Model the fold of this input.
Amino acid sequence: MVVGGDAAGMSAATQARRLRTAAELQITVLEQGHDVSFSACGIPYWVGGQVAGRNELIARTPAEFAAQDISVHTGTRAAGIDLAAGAVVTEHGTRFGYDTLVIGTGGRPTRPPIPGLDAPGVFGVHRLEDGAAIRTAIDAGARTGLVLGGGYIGLEMAEALLARGLAVTVVLADPLPMQLLDADMGERVCAGLRAMGIVVHTDSAVREVLLDGDGRACGVRTDGASYEADLVVLGLGMGPEVTLAADAGLALGVTGAIDVDRSQRCRDHPEVFAAGDCAQTFHRVSGEVAHVPLGTHANKQGRVAGSVIGGRPARFAGVLGTAVTKVGDLEVGRTGLCTTQAEEAGFAYRTDVIEATTRAGYFPGAEDVAVKLVSERGSGHLLGAQVVGGPGSAKRIDVLATAIWAGMTAEDLAGSDLSYAPPFSPVYDPVAVAARAVSRTEQG
Done:
């Protein structure tokens, strides 16, 4: 049995099916929504018009899974798990027995106790229905939009609304957007937003969603001011959706997500697996437990669970929290530990920032890029990295993520054989220049 039909759940189901035939293993999936295997990450680009239609965000349909002998029940919400009996009970009382259970209930959008937050005109960005509702509001004549929060989804939605012709305001409780960036890099993102014409209010916790005479959201109030809008979009982050697991008595970790081992098995019930945004994991650099809700991790964790269920040993290797996004022409990437995380993990660290260009300076289209490295003082081991710059910047974070994953030092990276041609980089790529800055100092 699989509860939850998106990244983690369907990855587990398909991997288990690759390893075991239908005669050997019956697979049933319960999904409370109407879609499975859909890309929530693509919703801002559908809203903004870069993606033409809803169906383009759906990787596979229930019919396609049925052709693989995977039975998918959409519109079916699991209401309870009977661990003693080995059964899942739906909201309508139907019982599905299982020998092995995978919980892939995903994440839950953060919704602080703010009056009016559940009013019409306040939109989440979690399911395809959310994207459809925002598009409908824009098509109906919305001209001003407020985005609450400055994480990946919040900033991507700000760009999407701007692309649709709305006047956009971003309201943050934090001092800067993207709190997993260090302040100096977050300031670059904030400046980029404002350069696009997006109004940004920082240190402005929302106290109330304002309602019009019909009870519909028409703005928000902070401690210092009120801001009007035709629609309000929530980009306040994600927490683990663990209600089903907690009610069943499964153990939760210190992050609030389901406690699992490296094979994605629940520690207290080995016949139950959990994967994706509902499951606790660990950071590969710090070794600390973590909850990092990203689709990349969900797919990998689901595959691990499916492999083990299918009879092939597998272990999840941890996370770095590598992520990229863009707002207009400004690209942002981060991986590993930021300085706050490095300090919390007890590292003696140093930081180095270099500024360069994405191509040879004389080549048309060369854009400014800043690369920041966080490294262990003395050893030069890479702990984290951040990249902010113009087009061609962000995917450089993958080189840095690979280096951190492999345990490389800055000197190792500085001496590695990176490619060069004027349309793609200066003769010394910004990644190598940043690594040289660290290694030069560490060597004295």
Q: What stands out?
A: The chain has three domains: 2-108+239-309, 122-234, 323-442. The domain at 323-442 is CATH 3.50.50.60 (FAD/NAD(P)-binding domain).
